[in-house]
């Protein structure tokens, strides 16, 4: 219930007022004031004052008893909000608080989080802490966060030393995610025996990641390859999500030896400078799920057929997802050169069950890849070719419309559908569920010239 209506209900109902005062979960946001109804023509300063007044009333009337979760999200935070934040947090954060989320979005003036809130016994029960867009310097005032299991810092100004102090006082930590924390240069993780997941996303100044955590099993990195990683025993890592330039080549050439027990791998290549991937003897013996995302402002791998190298290296693979963003590449269309399609009849994939290609288009090498999978996989149960970029359909979108696609992509989607029906569908066994997804005819009723198959090219 929006806070405005909750406050009105509390003013006329004693029972509702009593339940409000002891409610264990509070989630407060000024989203309506910033992005709300166009009918609200009040000046921004008046809307800000209204939000502050309502939050003041809610927190001052709350007994504090039983408050376990407190979430405060402020869009376009101003100094007027900062003047009240300390008092709001002191009311909300108690020795019984288990989850604290403070998200100050789109703020240029950084708020200094009062670390004294987490000192003494106040932070003993805290299990989840999320801070976004603030200054956080816990070196001196922080206490022992003995119950903290999850920590998320997003766009937080924190020094290497402050972060080290925080981690050294968080012995129970199981999940750590740092996103857009541009002041971190050297991330050093102490021997946290319970830490299972580490995520480091777009921390632009980062140069080194050193971890002494002995039980890391899941990694999510959006960092370039030049960042030095020292992760200790990497044979325990079973799940990796890695985004950077040239990551496909890196994943194929180096990962099998450095992380031999991977079961789930997602790679997102922003810029790949190689035309084709090599066939190598190194293998991912335990890999069951593989997702490859290719695209960016510069050319990706131009030979999609070479991705067979990953399939050949993964004898236990069950699910393969390929998502491409063909923005500036020049690929030979299957209609322009249809005579000879490459095959590798000596290869066989006996566990692969589900294959999805998103942004499937009429590039010859992509058609060759799909045909190879059909011809060499005896275990295949489902093949899905999505000629859109995975857009949300009108049937599930709140707006009632499909996500937008440009006219040139709609034209290419028609080529892709024709390519799939001509070269791929005839090879689909009766035991395989075959799905070809086209742009919605209702939302994309665009008139295009009839396709000339003989002259089709990208």
From TrEMBL:
Residues 58-441 form the At1g61320/AtMIF1 LRR domain. It comes from Urochloa decumbens. InterPro entries: At1g61320/At1g61330-like, LRR_At1g61320_AtMIF1, LRR_dom_sf. PANTHER family: OS02G0105600 PROTEIN, OS05G0571700 PROTEIN. This is At1g61320/AtMIF1 LRR domain-containing protein. Pfam families: LRR_At1g61320_AtMIF1.
């Amino acid at each position: 219930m929006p806070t405005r209506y909750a406050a009105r209900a509390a003013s006329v109902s004693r029972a509702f007022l009593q339940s409000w005062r002891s409610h264990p979960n509070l989630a407060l946001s000024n989203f309506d004031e910033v992005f709300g109804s166009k009918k609200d023509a009040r000046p921004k300063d008046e809307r800000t004052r209204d939000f502050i007044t309502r939050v003041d009333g809610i927190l001052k009337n709350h007994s504090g008893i039983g408050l376990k979760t407190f979430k405060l999200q402020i869009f376009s935070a101003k100094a007027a909000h900062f003047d009240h934040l300390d008092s709001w947090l002191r009311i909300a954060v108690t020795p019984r608080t288990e989850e604290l989320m403070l998200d100050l979005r789109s703020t240029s003036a950084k708020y200094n989080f009062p670390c004294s809130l987490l000192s003494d016994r106040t932070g003993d029960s805290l299990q989840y802490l999320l801070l976004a867009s603030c200054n956080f310097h816990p070196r001196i005032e922080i206490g022992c966060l003995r119950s903290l299991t999850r920590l998320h810092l997003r766009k937080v100004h924190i020094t290497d030393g402050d972060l080290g102090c925080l981690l050294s006082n968080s012995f129970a930590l199981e999940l750590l995610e740092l996103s857009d924390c541009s002041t971190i240069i050297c991330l050093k993780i102490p021997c946290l025996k319970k830490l299972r997941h580490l995520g480091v996303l777009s921390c632009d100044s980062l140069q080194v990641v050193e971890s002494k955590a002995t039980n890391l099993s899941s990694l999510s990195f959006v960092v370039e390859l030049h960042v030095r990683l020292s992760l200790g025993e990497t044979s325990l890592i079973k799940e990796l999500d890695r985004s950077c330039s040239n990551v496909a080549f890196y994943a194929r050439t180096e990962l099998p030896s450095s992380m031999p027990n991977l079961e789930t791998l997602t790679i997102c290549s922003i810029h790949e400078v190689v035309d084709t991937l090599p066939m190598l003897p190194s293998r991912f013996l335990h890999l069951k799920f593989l997702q490859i995302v290719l695209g960016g402002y510069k050319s990706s791998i131009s030979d999609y057929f070479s991705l067979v190298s990953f399939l050949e290296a993964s004898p236990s693979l069950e699910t393969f997802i390929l998502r491409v963003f063909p923005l500036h590449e020049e690929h030979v269309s299957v209609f322009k050169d249809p005579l000879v399609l490459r095959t590798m009849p000596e290869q066989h994939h006996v566990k692969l069950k589900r294959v999805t290609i998103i942004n499937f288009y009429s590039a010859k090498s992509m058609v060759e890849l799909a045909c190879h999978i059909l011809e060499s996989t005896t275990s295949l149960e489902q093949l899905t070719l999505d000629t859109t970029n995975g857009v949300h359909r009108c049937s599930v979108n709140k707006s009632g419309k499909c996500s937008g696609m440009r006219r040139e992509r709609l034209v290419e989607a028609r080529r892709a559908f024709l390519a799939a029906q001509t070269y791929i569908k005839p090879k689909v066994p009766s035991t395989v569920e075959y799905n070809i997804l086209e742009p919605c005819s209702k939302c994309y009723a665009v008139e295009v010239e009839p396709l000339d198959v003989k002259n089709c090219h990208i």
